[in-house]
Amino acid sequence: MNIFKNIKIHFLLLVILLIFSSLSCQKTSVRTDMFGNNQESPLKRKIKASHLVELQGVFGQIHELYSASVVFITTEQIVRVQNPFFNDPWLREYYGHSGLRRRSGLGTGFVLTSDGYICTNFHVVHGVNRIFVKIEDTEYQAQIVGVDQITDLALLKIDVEGLKPVYFGDSDKVNVGDWAVAIGNPFGLDRTFTVGVISATGRSDIDALGTSHFQTDASINPGNSGGPLINIYGEVIGINRMIYSSSGGHMGIGFAIPVNLARIVLGDLQKYGEVRRGFLGLSIIGLTERSAIELGLETPGGYLINELMPNGPAVQGGLRVGDVILEVNGVPLRSHRELQSIINNSQVGQEIAISVWRSGAKMEFNIVLSERPRNR
């Protein structure tokens, strides 16, 4: 009897398990079918037949192309901090006045040459004690070859061979609306890939020195500094520098240094360890409408030369105090920052054309720039 009783119990348990299994399967089946439309999206075939999928593939190719060319930069800085117990005489006796702390930073860079030259921003490496460059899964300690605070660029060197340098584009051919891809390490998230467009070109009011910038809405955040801005052809057209933000995060406005300017600066840093900039040797002030009329100008505009450096390039080229600069290299001068930017971005020995208004007539001068004095 006990045997039959045990058989009945096992049989009942088996039936109960089968019932629960059946209910569980039905429950899972119902949940799979009850949410969403299980039919193929009506757009899928249309999009597959369009060029949008091809474009999506291009973005993936750009990411793959630069997987070993964009680098993750970390820095260490030893700083002296005030001891929090400084105001307590008893605790100060035991803990001292101040102490040393290690402060870390991060940024992005990219490979310039197969033998280890790396580009990044000046502000990423300024004042730090050690710099580390991570390429894929390998980290190297880097040395600073040269820095330029004016353009916010720095040239680093690591002791390694066989790296994959980036491809350079022509930033003079960049237009508003062009695709823009940013690759960097925002908030330490390695090789983050974002896409946008060029929102503006020639932004010269970003810093006090009038350096030209691209504006882009490709997402740029802290940690992206020094990374490449890339066009749809997989060419670097700029170096991401800064963002406009009230919160410290992305707000759709980022700025990049045009690569044509960067290549000149980096070349000087590699050769001299510093940038040798052109120097004109004059100062200018804006003209009021009344002053322009008194000088006989047909339309208000231009900038009055109010000071010249003795024996400077401007004097040697024939310019005088009282001349009104109208154009530089054939382009109307719209601000003193524009002139400053042109000179800063020109090389020693380069000739620039300046049109001035003098004694009721327009005159042309070709000025050969000298090297900027160290104290200027």
Q: What does this entry show, briefly?
A:
This protein has helices at residues 2-34, 44-48, 52-65, 89-95, 122-125, 259-272, 289-294, 313-316, 336-344; strands at residues 70-82, 98-111, 117-121, 130-135, 138-148, 153-157, 179-184, 192-203, 213-216, 228-230, 236-243, 254-258, 278-279, 282-286, 303-308, 324-328, 331-332, 351-358, 361-368, 370-371. It is an alpha+beta fold and 376 residues long.
Description of the molecule:
The protein has 376 residues and is α+β, with helices and mostly antiparallel strands. The protein has three domains: 70-157, Thrombin, subunit H (Beta Barrel); 171-272, Thrombin, subunit H (Beta Barrel); 278-371, Pdz3 Domain (Roll). It is built from nine helices and 20 strands. The chain has helices spanning 2-34, 44-48, 52-65, 89-95, 122-125, 259-272, 289-294, 313-316, 336-344; strands spanning 70-82, 98-111, 117-121, 130-135, 138-148, 153-157, 179-184, 192-203, 213-216, 228-230, 236-243, 254-258, 278-279, 282-286, 303-308, 324-328, 331-332, 351-358, 361-368, 370-371. A six-stranded antiparallel barrel has the order 1-2-3-6-5-4. It is globular, with a radius of gyration of 31 Å.
